[in-house]
Amino acid sequence: MTESSSSEAGPPGRPISRKNLLRAAVAASTVPLIAGGGIALARDTGAGGAPLALTPACDDGDDPTPAQMEGPYFKPNSPLRTSLVTSGTSGTPLTVSGYVFGRACKPLSGVLLDFWQADAGGAYDMSGFAFRGHQFTDATGAFTLTTVVAGLYPGRTRHIHVKAQAPGRPVLTTQLYFPGEPRNATDALYDPALLMNVRGAGSGRQGTFDFVLDVAQQPDPTDPPTDPPTDPPGGTWAAGTSYRAGDRVTYDGVSFRCLQAHSAIAGWEPPLVPALWERG
Ligand SMILES: [Fe+2]
């Protein structure tokens, strides 16, 4: 299998837009400021540190982060970790940080972000889990990934794959891109809406990217009300339980096997979280 842009027609080129980032950041007045310089985002530049005014909405129909193909190199059951770097890792150090917002530009906590990428030499680890890991956004909706700059491989420009999933919501599969890459101009999958801001930081790089998921949030008047809680279906799975790899549960009449140890959280029921549970 190959992951060639020539075999998957990508979206037509779009002008670079930072409105998602800017509008989302303006509304997220509780988000801490990012230290240091670099490319200025709205969240970096609140005048005098004063809270920024809320905007009524960040969704005009095309704002959520666009989806992209998964490609052939995804593997479920990635480790829970924010750093993909080990003592033997080679490559240019890279951190990618940012926030995940819903459609009302409010941060989303507990969003599962599952990253995978090529190593510095352009190879994916299909036998193990090198350069694969998942994590959850914190209470402010923030995430940080510690890795290296993804290597180039034939047919593609430089990119990082990610799946983003808010609790109980569908998975968004997409890819993040690096600015200033010559192959951005020839990769049909490349989408400037998925460009990270990247700046130098010592011998490495620091990237930022904010996701906007198609998740309704109050008080956007155009959003439907949040789904009311529903009674859990029958089964042995229970929120608050600490499960170990190999544990088995039932949920709504279906058996699931735990792929890795975790604490069960409402919204992460087994049918919704292929990273943690598999049928069987
Ligand atoms: Fe890839």
TrEMBL record:
Residues annotated as region Disordered?
Answer: 218-241
What InterPro entries does the annotation carry?
Answer: CBM5/12, CBM_sf_5/12, Intradiol_dOase_C, Intradiol_dOase_core, Intradiol_RC_Dioxygenase, TAT_signal
Q: Origin, by domain of life? A: Bacteria
| Entry GO MF terms | dioxygenase activity
What CDD domains does its record include? Answer: ChiA1_BD, intradiol_dioxygenase
Q: Which UniProt keywords apply?
A: Dioxygenase, Hydrolase, Oxidoreductase
Give the Pro residues compositional bias ranges. 221-232
Start and end residues of each Chitin-binding type-3 domain: 234-280
Q: Which Pfam families match?
A: CBM_5_12, Dioxygenase_C
Give the family, as the similarity comment puts it.
Answer: Belongs to the intradiol ring-cleavage dioxygenase family.
- PANTHER family assigned: DIOXYGENASE (PTHR33711:SF11), DIOXYGENASE, PUTATIVE (AFU_ORTHOLOGUE AFUA_2G02910)-RELATED (PTHR33711)
Quote the protein name from its UniProt record. Dioxygenase
Task: Give the species this sequence originates from.
Answer: Streptomyces silvae
